[in-house]
Design goal:
The protein is of the alpha+beta class and 352 residues long. It has eight helices and 22 strands. 26% of the residues lie in helices and 24% in strands. The radius of gyration is 43 Å and the shape is elongated.
Length: 352
């Protein structure tokens, strides 16, 4: 049943309203906004590091007006470059927290040299220190110095969000990311570190790096004399590929490739591996080659004056340009014209 146009448009509008807006999905968290503001402030420190008051007598200005390095003028220059005019959220945060930044610059930066830690973590409480998470900035699993044993990411690390659980890197598992997944083995483990290394490709589980260290073979491999070796699926009694394909073995698997277009069945790539040749082709120098029917002793094109043209696997018979095509011949232009011009013979009249 087809919906009326107005109903369909209404349904589409409803679906669009229910979809999350892309901007909302990408909206930065309060911690990210605070960190971004601090990063720009620190960049402003770098950009103004070699500046001065800009007058003609720098020595007099610094002696009389205090040094530019710690001056309010330098602070204002940095603050003016923190937010783009179109960045509403950045400007909103700067307007609300400008007094805090001014207090840190004029009074507290020597005591608290890490602006991020003082501003975002301790003062505004929007972020946590690295290795901690959640509203109370608790230590991540494995401790704040090496969260998740250095083998994973702590949920909420550095923010006031998350639950502190570990999302392990590839190859690792367990609450603290110290255990190895299938396909990996422990190459180093002590009280502080755990290193998992990938097994040989033939192993599903292993205790070392070679195919003789497998606990279990991967699919497509089989245990043979203490080592996992590749199964040659192409050598199976029942071929895994179709009659128009040939099998190509690979480590742990195989692929089916199409035979050459000149083949009826094949054992490999190209016209030299055909089992038989298709009509129009014949075995020549060990491979299937096109038969030139036009050069055979027995003429392929039998009509008079007809030209033969060879094609891959076949041929075509064509009358020369200007010749008229009939059922049993290609008639030259002169003969065709003569036949058209010759008058019809009338019966002789008897004398009256």
């Amino acid at each position: 049943m087809r919906l009326p146009r107005r109903a369909a448009l209404g349904l589409l509008s409803l679906l669009l309203l229910l979809l999350p807006a892309p901007e909302a999905a990408k909206k930065p968290t309060p911690c990210q906004r605070c960190r971004g503001l601090v990063d720009k402030f620190n960049q402003g420190l770098v950009d103004t590091a070699k500046k001065n008051f800009g007058g003609g007598n720098t020595a007099w200005e610094e002696k009389t007006l205090s040094k530019y390095e710690s001056s309010e003028i330098r602070l204002l220059e940095i603050l003016e470059g923190l937010c783009e005019s179109s960045d509403f959220e950045c400007n909103q945060m700067l307007e609300a927290q400008e007094e805090h930044l001014e207090a840190w610059w004029l009074q507290l930066k020597n005591e608290y040299p890490d602006l991020f830690e003082w501003f975002c973590v301790k003062t505004l409480k929007l972020c946590c220190s690295p290795g901690t998470y959640g509203p109370d900035c608790l230590a991540c699993q494995g401790g704040s110095q090496r969260p998740c044993s250095g083998n994973g990411h702590c949920s909420g690390d550095g923010s006031r969000q998350g639950d502190g659980s570990c999302r392990c890197h590839v190859g690792y598992q367990g609450p603290l990311c110290t255990d190895c997944m299938d396909g990996y083995f422990s190459s180093l483990r002590n009280e502080t570190h755990s290193v998992c290394t990938v097994c040989d490709e033939s192993c599903k589980t292993c205790s070392g790096p070679t195919n003789r260290d497998c606990g279990e073979c991967e699919v497509g491999w089989v245990l043979d004399e203490g080592a996992c070796v590749d199964v040659d699926e192409c050598a199976a009694e029942t071929p895994p590929c179709s009659a128009a394909q040939f099998c190509k073995n690979a480590n742990g698997s195989y692929t089916c490739e199409e035979c050459d277009s000149s083949c009826v069945g094949c054992t490999g790539e190209g016209p030299g591996n055909c089992k038989e040749c298709i009509p129009g082709y014949a075995r020549e120098h060990g491979q299937c080659a096109d038969v030139d029917e036009c050069s055979l002793a027995e003429k392929a094109c039998v009509r008079k004056n007809e030209n033969c043209y060879n094609t891959p696997g076949s041929y075509v018979c064509v009358c020369p340009d200007g010749f008229e095509e009939t059922e049993d011949a290609c008639v030259p232009p002169a003969e065709a014209a003569t036949e058209e011009e010759s008058p019809t013979q009338l019966p002789a009249h008897e004398d009256l």
